[in-house]
Amino acid sequence: MKARAALAATGVGFGLWGLWLLVDAVAPAALIRLPIWLGGAVVADDFFLVPLTLTVGWLVTRWSTGPDRHRTIGAVRTTLLYVGLTTLIAIPLLVRQGKGVNPTVLPRDYLRDWLLLEATIVVAGAVVFVVQRSRFTFSRSRASSGDIGGR
Questions:
Q1: What is the pLDDT of residues 43-77, one digit of tens each?
Q2: For residues 14 and 20, what is the distance between their CA atoms, to the nearest angstrom?
Q3: Is the separation of the CB atoms in 113 and 45 below 8 Å?
Q4: Residue 94 CB partners (closer than 8 Å, separation 6+)
């Protein structure tokens, strides 16, 4: 019980310290815009990202119910997951590239780099998909030929 209270007090202390640093470092006009930006993030998440994720998940699930597709669904889901995560991480870099007081802060071509990363992920996912598909086809053809079990 004492450990829990100490951890709670430590967490509250760190939270208050972070709040003090925020108020000290950010202009009052920006502090007023901050809740609007956070509200926009919630709206974007609830009305864009969640429906998009549910739709893609539903489509992938419907696709996976076909014959022999259940074995390769992991490759498709993992590829989509990695593409989605890296896209969410890259969005701030893509939006802010070359803007602001110092345009040299983000001097790279982030759009090209992001597209190369996404292409690499999709190619790797396609390779895994093909390998899993060919393994399954090979094992199914051996099983149907009667070579298993010494017959």
A1: 888 888 889 888 988 888 888 777 767 777 888 88
A2: 10
A3: no
A4: 110, 111, 114
> Nearest 5 degrees, angle CA 115-CA 76-CA 117?
15
Dihedral Cα 81, 87, 88, 92, nearest 10 deg: 170
- Give every CB contact of residue 106 below 8 A, 6+ residues apart in sequence: 93, 96, 97, 98
**Nearest-angstrom CA–CA distance, 45 and 93:** 18
The stretch 103-107 carries a mean pLDDT of 64
Residue spans of alpha helices (H) in 45-97: 50-64, 73-96
Whether the CB-CB separation of 96 and 106 falls below 8 Å is answered with yes
Name the residue among 44, 50, 132 with its Cα closest to residue 92.
44
CA angle 43, 116, 132 (to 5 degrees): 95
The amino acid that residue 106 corresponds to is: L
Pairwise CA distance, residues 71 & 79, whole Å: 15
Q: What is the dihedral of CA 93, 57, 46, 49, to 10 degrees?
A: 20
Please give the distance of CA 37 from its chain centroid, rounded to a whole number: 21
